[in-house]
Here is the input.
Amino acid sequence: MLHVSITTAQQAPAGQDKLDGETLFATTCGWCHADGGREAGKGPKLANSQRTDDFIAQRIKHGKEGAMPAFGGTYNDEQIAEIIRYIRGLKDDAG
Amino acid sequence: MRNTTFATLATAALAFGATLAAAPALAQTIDTARIEAGGGNDWPTYHGNYKSYHYSTLDQINTGNVKDLQVAWMHFPGRSTRGVQSQPLAADGVLYYSGSYSRVFALNGATGELIWSYFPELDDALVARQTHSPYNRGIAIGDGKLYVGTVDGRLIALDLKTGKPAWDTKLMNSQKATVGFTGAPLFAKGTVVIGSQGGEWPGRGPIFGVDAATGKQKWQFLTAGGNDYDVAAKKTWGNDSWRTGGGGGWMTGTFDPPTNTIWWGTANPGPLYDWSGADYKTQGARPGDNLYTTSVLGLDVDTGALKFYHQELPHDAWDFDSAVGEFISIDRDGKQLMVHPNKSGFVFVYDRKNAEVENVWRMVENINFVRDITSKGELIGRRDFTAGKQDEVLCPHISGGVSWNSGSYDPKNGQYYKIGQEWCMKLSVVKTAAITEPQAQLNIGANFTIAKPPGSEIYGHLDARDPITGAKKWEVRYPEPPLSSVLSTGGNLVFVPDARGVIHAYNALDGKELWSHNDGTGHQGGIISYSAGGKQYVAVVAGFGGMATDDYSVQFGELYKSMPKDTGALIVFGLK
Here is the structure.
C-alpha cells in the first residue's frame, strides 16, 4: 500500500485532514494548471472537463512525457479521487 | 604542470589516434589557465570564460559584413523533449553540445561532421515523474574530459577525444528527491562543480565538488540550512523547516582564480509562496531568513568551505531566486566587482573579495514584490502574503524579470547586453504541506495565472547598460519576452535569438538591426562564437519547451500554439 507522509512546519506529521484535494492541487498542480485549474495555462483548463474520471485518474498517475509529470508513485487512489473531486467542484469563473 | 598534461595527452592521442575520424588537430588541452584566458578561438566554459562575459573577441564577422552571414551547417540531436536549452562549447576547432536526456555530441566545428556521440541510459520511470526534466543546459570540459550531469542524479565524465566514459558518479538519490541535474557543470582547477535542482522541492539542494580525475566526490554544500555543523544557518528556519527547505543551485556559477573561489547562486526555499504575513520571522511555513536560499555563495574550490555569502532576498516568498549563474567580473576605479542578476529583475553589484553589496539597480520596470532594494541591498516595503487571493498582481511573473539564460558584457565598450521581461501574475496563496514520501513532490503553495503588468502589455527588451550603475544606452523591444542567452563580439555585434525563432544581429553601439534569420522554431538556450580552420562561426540552439515557454501558447496565440515542444537543432552560421 502506498503511504504518504506529510510534514509541515507547524505540525509534523500533519493530520489526514491536510490531504484534501484543494491542498494537494495547490501543492503539486497549480503551477501548470492556472488559477487552480479554472483557466488554461501551461496545462489545459480542468474546470468543466468533459473527460471521464478514469481518464483524469490515468493522466494524474502516468502524466504525459514532456508535458506533465506522473504522480502515480506519490498519490494513492484515495488521494487521486480527492483531487478529481476538487476538479469536478471547480466553478468555471476565471475571476 | 602544463608539461605533465601535455605528456598525458600525447599518450592518449597515440592510443586512440587510429579510431579518430578526421578530428581537427588537438593542439593543447583545456585547463584552468586556458579557460581563465578565454576569448580567442574557443568557448571553453559555459559563460565563455571565468569572467562570465559571454563575449567573443573574434571580429571576422562584423558590422560591415554581417549581412552576408548564412547557415554553414546544422545538427539535429533528436528526441528533443522540451526543446534544446543548452550552451554549446568549442575548443580547438571542435564543437561540443548536449541535448535533452543529456545526449552529448562532438562535431567538427567547420563542417558539422560527427566525431563522437554519447547517449547515457537514464532511469526512464524517474524522468516520467520529474517536472523539471529531461532538458540539459550544458556541459563542461577540462583536463582531457567532458562533463555532463543527468536528471537521475549522476555526473558523467567522457574522454574528450573519443567520447568513451571515464567515470560515472551517482551524486544524489534522485529517485527519492525527484530532482537531479539539468545545469552545466563548471570545471576549475581539477574540480568539477555541479548544483542540483531544488527550490520548491522539499530537499536540501546540494552543490557538489567532484575530483575531475577520479570522479570521487570531494565536497558537498547543502544550501537549505547549510552543512550538518552549521547550527547558525538552521536557526534561520523555524520548526526545523530546513529539512524540507528546497534551495539548490541549478545554474552554472563561475570561478575567481586569484582567490580560488567558486561563486554560485542558490535557488528559492519551499514552499514557493508562504502565508506568513508580515511577521515572516516567526510565522508561516518556514519562519526566518532561510539561509542559504536565494543567496550568492563564495565557496573554496578545493574544500567547498563557505568563505562568504550574501542573501539577496532574505525569506524569499516570491520565487525570485539567485540561481542565475551569471557572475561578471569587472574591475573599475580600483574596485574588483562581481555583477549578478537576481531573478526578480534587480541586478546586484558585489565586492569580489567578500560579496559585500556595492550597488543594486533595476533591469525591469515591473517590480512590486518590494517597493525597492536600496543600493546597499536592503529590501524596503516587502509584500509578505497571507493565505488567500491577492488583490494586486505580483510582478514580475514567476518566470522572472530575467531568465536563467545569460546576458553579454562587451569589455571593449563597457556595455552589458541583457534581456528583461515585463510580466506579472494573479496569485492566490494556499497553505500546503511538504510531501517527502515515498518520493519528494513539488511544494508550490499557490494557484496563479500569468497577467499583464498594470497599464501595459507583456513584453521583453534587450538593453545596453552600464553593468555597475545600470545606466541605459539603448533598448530594443519584443512583443514576447526572448528567453535565450545573448552574445556580443569583437565585430561590434550583439546577437539575440528570440522566442519566435528569429535570430537578430544588432550594432553594439546603437542597437540598429543589421541582420536576421529565421531558425524555424523558438530559442531558449545558448549562443556562442568560435573559430575553426581560421573561420569564425556563430552557433545557436533552437527548440522550445519547458516551464517558461509553456505559457506562450495561451498568452500569445497561434505561432506558439503550433510551435513544437519536442524538436530542436544546433544551427551554425558563417560568412558566405
